């Protein structure tokens, strides 16, 4: 099988983006039809940024595909409906990726910095007796 994804700019760049890793988690132990798998992308933060036009994940079965290496059980009962299928990729948050985990930890720190700024401004404005209008303006801009 070939598994790749195409971004929304495929018409201009004609590039099939490869995966960093494809790992099968479960071979259909619940209903003998569903295969659960985990995909690892090279740049997961670049996937699913547009809402109306989505990136797509493609799975192609090669024409001379040998079923004995993948499917368990009676091979004569296995029937693939299509040789190619695709699914839209929504925004992906893969925190196993080092860059995404760094950005998430930075966002958590900035959250607390922002809370500290609001608290300090509130205390200073009350102490100086200026009024809370600058605080409400800053909240409105956020």
Keywords:
single chain; 142 residues; alpha+beta; 2 domains; 4-stranded antiparallel sheet; two-stranded antiparallel ribbon; 3 helices; 6 strands; elongated
Q: What shape does the CA trace take? A: elongated
Number of domains: 2
Query: Unreliable runs, pLDDT <50, ≥5 residues?
Result: 68-79
What quaternary form is this? single chain
Helix content: 25-40%
Largest sheet: 4 strands, antiparallel
Order of helices and strands: EHEEEEEHH
Average pLDDT score:
77
Helical stretch tally: 3
- The Cα radius of gyration reads 25 Å
Q: Work out the number of β strands.
A: 6
How far apart are the termini? 47 Å
Taken as a percent bin, the fraction of beta residues is: 15-25%
Written overview of the protein:
With 142 residues, this protein is an alpha+beta fold. The protein folds into two domains: 88 residues, no CATH class; 44 residues. 31% of the residues lie in helices and 21% in strands. It is built from three helices and six strands. The strands form two sheets. It has a four-stranded antiparallel beta sheet, with no helix packed on it. The longest helix has 31 residues. The chain is elongated and about 80 Å long. 3% of the residues are buried.
């Amino acid at each position: 099988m070939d598994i790749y994804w195409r971004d929304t700019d495929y018409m201009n760049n004609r590039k099939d983006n490869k995966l960093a890793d494809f790992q099968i988690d479960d071979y259909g132990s619940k209903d003998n039809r569903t295969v659960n798998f985990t995909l690892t992308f090279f740049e997961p933060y670049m996937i699913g940024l547009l809402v109306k036009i989505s990136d797509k994940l493609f799975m192609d079965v090669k024409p001379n595909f040998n079923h004995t290496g993948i499917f368990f059980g009676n091979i004569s009962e296995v029937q693939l409906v299509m040789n190619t299928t695709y699914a839209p990729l929504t925004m992906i948050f893969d925190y196993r990726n080092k860059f995404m985990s760094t950005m998430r930890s930075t966002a958590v720190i900035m959250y607390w910095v922002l809370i500290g700024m609001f608290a300090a401004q509130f205390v200073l404005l009350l102490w100086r007796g200026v009024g809370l209008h600058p605080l409400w303006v800053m909240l409105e801009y956020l």
